[in-house]
Design a protein that fits this description.
The protein is an alpha/beta fold. Among the domains are: 149 residues, Chitobiase, domain 2; 205 residues, no CATH class. It is built from 21 helices and 16 strands. Helix 12 crosses helix 13, helix 16 runs antiparallel to helix 18 and helix 18 packs antiparallel against helix 19. The longest helix has 28 residues. The radius of gyration is 26 Å and the shape is globular.
């Protein structure tokens, strides 16, 4: 497989197993329910408690056995070892030696602890610790929560989770035989997580899953049946990169995908799957042809299943941007069978998403469809899926989508079994200068017009959509929003947009939402990960002080000088504010706004120059996590200077100069890719400026590289 040197040992072992199975023609799904995942004990063979030696100062005893609890034990031992500078200082032990300091890990019920206000212990997270002198209990309402509680205990001991990856943890040096923490805390929202947006490697995916559990995120969503394009955009270097392409085969991508699912389930996290792309399997195409990059041919005789739009039934935009002829009973039945069959084959999925296409105004215009609102046909299909799953005794939850032409709720159809379904509200066309508008009633939704619809463009219109749907469905629901898909790239300080995001999270209960799964780029940590940290912490406790969270994060990420960094980042966000508040660059058409933007952009150069001595003075900090943070900040400073110059030229309507400056920035980003790789998704950063949301700069072509076949 020619795996990277930094690949974790257990990852490498599993991947070799995958390839051996493939070569023998015996490849099978490695993912199973969480109980089938393999436990790991620190410093010992999998599933075996380490023998206690005289070096052990703290014993970890597991009161329950589940992969997430066993991982919690292993992680507690590992981090105590890092604190003490001795990997043998702590070990999992079934029967600790008499007199050994012992911390017990298990479920709240194992210790007879109360769980007040918990609706469902399996789905709602409570963490508890009562440790004094390194003796006591760490517990959770479910196995996942035991892992969360363990990381929370380690935080109380001084650890900080700065970003994913091997340089992402700050671990203090300290004695471990007198540790103390006491807390009981319950997560406010049930749905807390993110999806697999962006481009990434296998290592980066696994690192993100690991980091998510450290900050208390309980949900991971793999969009698409098989995210081939998201992996291979990275491995093929389909962006300005100096690296040679290393494309992966469909078999390798499936192995990567299944390994990532295994790691999600190992932690007891909720696994969401699919979304767009069902069009492909309904047509009889493989799951690898289900993502945005797929451009398959229509199988013979299947054209009639596709939506008729402007007199054509074709697949030219790919399966995720092509609707089906939902008025055709045969199509509806094929969808029902495809979704139910997938759910039957994939028992590891907790929430299965069935969505229509990712475009607007591509709904079928044939006589079977044109007189029925799309959402009525959608609900009819959802009811069919529920009936088939009920026949198969499959309790899986189905997630339906409020998005694009499904903005308009059904006129006639209603869900027969609301308990089966979870509503997902995806206000993709909103702006991010104001939080969700709670004044909307849903009474002023514009009329539905077949293939002549317009997206809502502000917070009031977006909320009108939600309120109109809530008149026909009052069940479980969460938000799927896009603060960190492309919008964050227009805020180089990574601090400005977080104010709206924080207020959005606070308003979820008044919206009838029980959480927020972020549609966001996997690598959103350049130059820091405060937005992701804020997102996770506020979904646990929306009453948390954003100022306190910011101080907490920046202190953990940068150590000495952290408050200076925070002020500097906040200043950069303010100086770029006209840009990040209007992704369509409308301010260039308004003279007053244009001048305000120029005044602020002109200050960027001096602001960066004034801060560079601070960066230089921290370039040799001893802690690896802090040192990496300052290194990223140094690279970010140089890039910010070029970005400000390019944007300023754009605002001054000097397009050729702007494009030339942008090209210089892209070249610099490519040169430093190896240094920023774990934190910055270059492909999506570039798209944010030269593609999506209004093209600001001419696209910089990807350099020609030697072609390499998939391995």
């Amino acid at each position: 497989m020619n795996m990277k040197p930094e690949m974790k040992t257990n990852t490498l072992t599993n991947m070799k197993t995958h390839i051996l199975l493939l070569s023998a023609g015996l490849f099978a799904l490695l993912v199973s329910m969480a109980s089938a995942a393999e436990p790991v004990a620190s410093g010992s063979p999998q599933g075996v408690a380490a023998p206690q030696t005289s070096a052990v100062r703290v014993a970890v005893r597991l009161k329950s056995h589940h992969p997430a609890i066993e991982l919690a034990g292993a992680e507690l031992c590992r981090y105590l070892g890092l604190m003490a500078g001795n990997p043998e200082v702590a070990a999992v032990a079934e029967n600790p030696q008499k007199g050994t300091t012992t911390i017990e890990l298990g479920l709240m019920t194992d210790f007879g602890l109360p769980m007040e206000g918990v609706r469902d212990p399996a789905r709602d997270d409570v963490v508890h610790a009562d440790v004094r002198g390194s003796k006591g209990v760490i517990a959770g309402s479910n196995p996942r929560s035991v892992l969360f509680a363990t990381y929370r205990f380690l935080e109380a001991c001084g650890c900080r989770w700065i970003r994913p990856g091997k340089d992402g943890d700050f671990v203090p040096t300290r004695a471990v035989d007198s540790l103390a923490a006491h807390f009981t805390d319950r997560a406010t929202y049930r749905f807390r997580g993110n999806n697999n947006c962006g481009t990434y490697s296998l290592d980066q995916m696994l690192d993100k899953i690991e980091w998510a559990s450290k900050v208390g995120l309980n949900t991971f969503f793999h969009e698409f049946l098989l995210p081939r394009d998201l992996y291979n955009t990275y491995y093929k270097r389909n962006y300005p990169s100096l690296k040679n392409p290393e494309p992966r085969s469909d078999e390798e991508i499936r192995a990567y995908h299944e390994l990532s699912i295994r790691e999600i389930k190992r932690r007891g996290m909720f696994y969401h799957a699919a979304g767009h792309g069902w069009t492909s399997v309904v047509l009889g195409l493989p799951e690898s042809e289900s993502d945005h990059g797929a451009r398959p041919a229509v199988p013979p005789g299947k054209e009639r299943f596709l939506a008729l739009v402007k007199g054509k039934r074709d697949l030219s935009r790919g399966p995720t941007f092509t609707d089906l002829c939902y008025g055709n009973p045969e199509v509806r039945q094929r969808i029902v069978q495809c979704v139910a069959d997938y759910a039957t084959r994939h028992l590891e999925v907790d929430y299965l998403h069935f969505w229509t296409d990712d475009a607007m105004n591509m709904t079928c215009e044939c006589p079977l469809c044109r007189d029925t609102r799309l959402s009525d046909l959608y609900v009819e299909i959802l009811n069919g899926i529920d009936a088939e799953l009920s026949r198969r005794n499959n309790p899986i939850k189905i997630v339906f989508l409020i998005y694009q032409d499904l903005i308009w709720p059904p006129e006639k159809q209603r869900l027969n079994n609301p308990q089966r379904f979870v509503e997902m509200f995806a206000p993709i066309s909103r702006r991010y200068d104001k939080p969700y508008d709670l004044t909307a009633t849903g009474d002023d939704l514009p009329p539905y017009r077949l293939n002549q619809n317009q997206r809502p463009t502000d917070e009031h219109a977006s909320m009108t959509v939600l309120r109109s749907w809530q008149k026909v469905f009052q069940g479980e629901a969460f938000v799927f929003d896009y603060h960190m898909t492309w919008h964050h790239y227009r805020d180089p300080g990574y601090c400005g947009f977080t104010k709206v995001m924080a207020e959005d999270i606070r308003r979820l209960p008044k919206m009838g939402m029980d959480g927020f799964v972020s549609c966001q780029v996997l690598r959103s940590y350049f130059p820091h990960g405060y937005p992701m940290y804020l997102h996770a912490r506020m979904l646990w406790n929306p009453a948390a002080s954003t100022d306190k969270l910011a101080r907490e994060y920046f202190a953990g990420a940068f150590g000495d000088g952290s408050e200076q960094v925070r002020r500097y980042m906040t200043t950069l966000s303010d100086l770029f504010a006209p840009l990040y508040l209007d992704r369509d660059m409308l301010f260039v058409k308004d003279e007053t706004a244009r001048q305000a933007a120029l005044t602020k952009l002109a200050k960027v150069s001096q602001t960066v120059a004034d801060f560079q001595p601070v960066i230089a003075s921290h370039s040799s900090t001893g802690n690896p996590a802090h040192q990496q943070s300052w290194k990223l900040l140094s690279l970010h400073a140089d890039m910010t200077l070029k970005l400000a110059a390019a944007v300023q030229a754009k605002v001054e309507k000097k397009q050729k100069e702007a494009d030339a400056l942008w090209k210089q920035l892209v070249e610099q980003v490519a040169v430093h890719e190896a240094e920023t790789d774990s934190a910055l998704d270059i492909a999506w950063f570039l798209r944010a400026y030269q593609g999506w949301g209004g093209r600001m700069f001419a696209p910089v072509p990807t350099p020609a590289k030697p072609a390499q076949a998939a391995r």
